[in-house]
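If you are new to this repository, start here. Below is one unmodified record pulled from the training split, so you can see the exact layout before writing a loader.
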Amino acid sequence: MTHSRIAISTDQPDQTIADLYRCWENGMVPCPLSSRLPRDKQNELAASVGACNQGISTFEVKTKSNIEDYPPDAISSILFTSGSTGTPKAVVHTFNNHIASAKRSNSTIPLGSGDKWLLSLPLYHVSGLSLLFRTSLAGASLINSSDKIATSIINNNITHISLVPTQLEQLLQTGDTYPTLKHILLGGAPIPETLIKRALDKLSCTIHTGYGLTETASHIYTESHHKDSPQPTIHHNPETLCIIKGEICVKGPSLCLGYSDSKNITQTQLNLDSDGWFHTGDLGQIDSNGRLSITGRKDTMFISGGENIHPEEIEKHLLTISSIEAAIVIPVMDETFGHRPIAYIKTNGNLDSEAIKETLRQTLPNFKVPDNLYNWPNSMPNETKLSRKRLISHHQLYSIQA
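And here is the target side for that same chain:
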């Protein structure tokens, strides 16, 4: 064995799961990477945590051990997320972190032997990897299917599924009622109340909405919406989630060990306060019934279809194009994805939107490519460092006038 950290990148979930167990049984730490990223970016992320990116097919899986048999304090995964600057953070979890999260989830979303949870989210996201732990602990089945979600539910008698709002919207448009479904866990983007109501009206299952982050090994707060109840059941533990000066703060056994680079795991980077709370950067409120509402971010990050988007990252790639002198990316509301990025661009020639988008697709996943590109505002021709807030106000006024 020559390396303790192994990068995993494949678009085949069954292969990813096999590789995870290969790592665990051979005492190695898996670092799942998005197969949607360009290969150079995958190599860069792997190198940033000192992970080998050559695969582990030579290691055999003798048996798939009970997931609780692994040393609880051993590192079980390094998952990449993004910080407020757009620089990916490598979040380090122990087995105990994932198991604590899974047990909490299974206590609020009943799951047992005979149930089938569809693997509808990627395993390089904590929301996808958490399903492996939940089903393993409950003795349930984790079902992988290459069919569309609607077909997979029907053909496999799926009882549980995790979805982002756009996926649920598509599911409701099929006309089927999916009678085997018991529970839908919805998250990853702002969730319209009307979407939950339509789902409850059409389907016979319970709709769960949650709040969580990579650092807490998936959701740490859950609301369960029932067909015949006007108010959701709130699963809120004040000992693991609270609001401090308007910011959502978390703690508890599912909170990650820390962040990693190629040599170190530095827990102090979590920015724990003197009482052990991790300050998430999310802004929110908790009402008298214990119900959490998210009001925004302390930084500029926004969510589009369940994916975190940082404007600065897109701007950096735009500015590598020789014809572009300045660029600012802002979010705009979108009924399907919650928000989508657009860009205002100052060029030394004509604005060729399609050529710019095609160039961006060579280095960015498609969901980060702005939907629309606009010329730099005529009212601010000489300003190359516009504030994002000011440009958002300009765009809103522009949209009204248009």
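Two things worth knowing about this chain: The CA atoms of residues 127 and 218 lie 6 Å apart. DSSP finds ten helices and 22 strands in the chain.
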